[in-house]
Amino acid sequence: MHLATTSSAPSTDVTPHIGSGTRFSSIDIFRGLIMVWMALDHTRDFFTNVRFEPENINLTWPGLFFTRWITHFCAPMFFLLAGTGAFLYRNSTGSVGKVSRFLWTRGIWLVILEWTIIEFAWTFVPWIFGGVIWSLGLSMVILAALVWLPEWAILTFGLVLVALHDLFDAVQPAQMGSFGGLWVLLHRRGLVPGTNFFVLFPLVPWVGVMASGYVLGSVMLKAPTVRQRILLFLGSALTVAFVVLRGLNAYGNPQAGVAASSPGEWHPLPAVSMTIVYFLDVEKYPPSLQFLLMTVGPSLLLLWWLDRFGHKPFTKKLADPLLIFGRVPMFFYILHLYVIHLLAIVTAYIFRQPVNWLWHGTFWMNSVPDDYGQSIFFVYAMWLMAIVMLYFPCRWFAELKQRRKDWWLSYL
Question: What's the structural domain count of the chain?
Answer without folding.
Answer: 1
